[in-house]
Amino acid sequence: METKQAEHELSEIKRIMEDSRRIMGDDGIGFILWGFLVAAGLLSSYLSVLGIIPWNVSSIAWFALIGTGWVITFILLRKERKERKAVTFAGKVAGAIWGSAGITMTIIGFVGSYTGLVKGMGISPLMACVLAAAYFISGVVYNDKVFRYLSFGWWAGALVMFFWHSPHTLLLFAMMMIFMQVVPGIIIFRKWKKESKPTSIKAA
Amino acid sequence: MDTRQAELEISVIKKIMEDSRSAVYDKSSQGLFWFTLTAATVLINYLMAVTGIGLNFSGLLWAGVSIFGTLYSIRLAKKESSKIKVKTFAGKILTAIGIATGIANIMFAFSSLVANAFDPFVIVSMNSMILGMAFYILSVIQQLKSFKILADLWWAGSVFFFFMPGIHSLLFMAIMLAASAWIPWAEERKLTKVN
Q1: Residue predicted with more confidence, B158 or A144
Q2: Nearest CA in chain A to B88
Q3: pLDDT at B5 over 70
Q4: Whole-model pTM?
Q5: Hey, are the CB atoms on B107 and A162 less than 8 Å from each other?
Q6: Closest Cα to residue A68, out of A33, A31, A102, A27?
């Protein structure tokens, strides 16, 4: 590939990325939704560990929360496809990153704990590793520094939880979910809302 | 963004991906090198465990392979950077996926063996899980069928070994690592010849 051609293609990519960054605003809803759902599940497990609520309530809560999450995600995806009609490259890659991360974490959570190979306290750091990988790749795809920094936060949190074998890691992971998933989701969503305003005026 | 514009962008992206796909396979041998090296090492480790010969040297084997791999990888990277003046977008994403899965896999092994966070048999399942994720993302970016099949196989293997943990998971790992390196390479070669 010639330098000139590559430079032209990279500038084209840059333009597409800038344009498709607005798509991340839609993903912001996914971040907020999944962040809240997983944090709620973790809090229910934490309360069970403390003996405040029975374990079967926490197990049912997990099934209900994750099930609800997938159902809402599919509804949102269908709605988005109808509205947008064409799927952008950035949208496809984002779908691949977060879809595969979701599948991976669902398998870790349910299959890992069902088989007994992953103990309760081991699930959180494993999931944090998956989230770190997803954030790091997203950071490169969207050329977004915040995503890359968040990935280091998730990796650091995973390391702490791998060594600190305590039920309190459930609370720590829930807090990580709020501060490193929900809060960035809200920021992305607000940014998207701001950016989409002039477009709608222009379109009108 | 309307349908026409999106279609145009996709066609541009597709062209770039096709272009850079061959660039990645022709010029970047890092993936092929690491997958082949780890496949051979896992296979040797498996044979050591099954036959019981030299099992005490398994740690030494991995330490040696890690040092050799890193040194050779640096040499390859230097060679590549002097050849390739412009980094392709696909190459950048590929590097990011490699770094992310590499860190995750090292952390899984480290946390199990050093921090006793979980059963060592979970390492293979977890490695397979994260590699499934990596190949799935690659299948969307690089548009190679083999990546999607490999992603499904990694995930299926991971779930299987969650239910049937054992030493034979290492054999699965060795075969899958070798297949993950050479099947996409063969498919790419075939596509390049056709085009």
Answers
A1: B158
A2: A6
A3: no
A4: 0.78
A5: yes
A6: A33
